[in-house]
Amino acid sequence: MKRYQELPIGGVIPGGATPHLVQTGGWRSGKKPVFNEKLCVNCLLCWVHCPEATILVERSQMRGISYDHCKGCGICSQACPTGAIVMVAETNDEPQMPQQKAGEEVCV
Ligand code: SF4
Ligand code: SF4
Predict the structure, then answer these.
(1) Whole-angstrom Cα distance, residue 24 to residue 13?
(2) Best mutation site among 75, 87, 100 for ligand 1 pocket (most ligand atoms within 8 Å of CB)
(3) Domain ranges across the chain
(4) How many whole angstroms from 96 Cα to the centroid of ligand 1?
(5) For the segment 30-56, what is each residue's pLDDT rounded down to a tens digit?
(6) Closest CA to 84 of 29, 33, 48
(7) Topology of 30-91 in CATH?
(8) CA separation for the pair 5, 54 (Å, rounded)
(9) pLDDT tens readout for residues 45-86
(10) For the chain, is the Cβ count within 10 Å smaller at the N or the C terminus?
């Protein structure tokens, strides 16, 4: 077995992470999370658990899901204690969730 010093250097993304330039939601699983604001208690468990950081939060309020990067894993739906996020099959005529605009800060 090779020592780590002998392994070839791996790939590098120039400039670090580029989520604003690369939208990876196009290869979602075929299901997408849909957010029901009326059931949300803003616990932010979905935000904590989402592996893609696609839960949009503004002033400690859950605001929706960025489909630009959501992969449809369903973890947010599983983590939500109130059923405010449900996974549905993707179609082209579903209502769009709030999207983060380029340069817009999303914070808690
Ligand atoms: S389905 Fe997965 S990637 Fe999409 S918002 Fe939920 S946890 Fe994040
Ligand atoms: S986990 Fe559910 S209740 Fe909590 S912030 Fe997310 S959508 Fe709202």
Answers:
(1) 15
(2) 75
(3) 30-91
(4) 15
(5) 999 999 999 999 999 999 999 999 999
(6) 33
(7) Alpha-Beta Plaits (3.30.70)
(8) 36
(9) 999 999 999 999 999 999 999 999 999 999 999 999 999 999
(10) N
Residue nearest to atom 6 of ligand 2 (CA): 46
Give the atom of ligand 2 at the shortest distance from the alpha carbon of 36.
7
Give me ligand 2 centre to Cα 57, in Å. Answer: 10
Tokens at residue 35, please?
A: 């957010």
- pTM score: 0.74
The H or E element that residue 78 is part of is helix 75-79
Number of residues that make up the chain: 108
Which of 34, 37, 40, when mutated, tests ligand 2's pocket best, judged by the most ligand atoms within 8 Å of its CB?
40
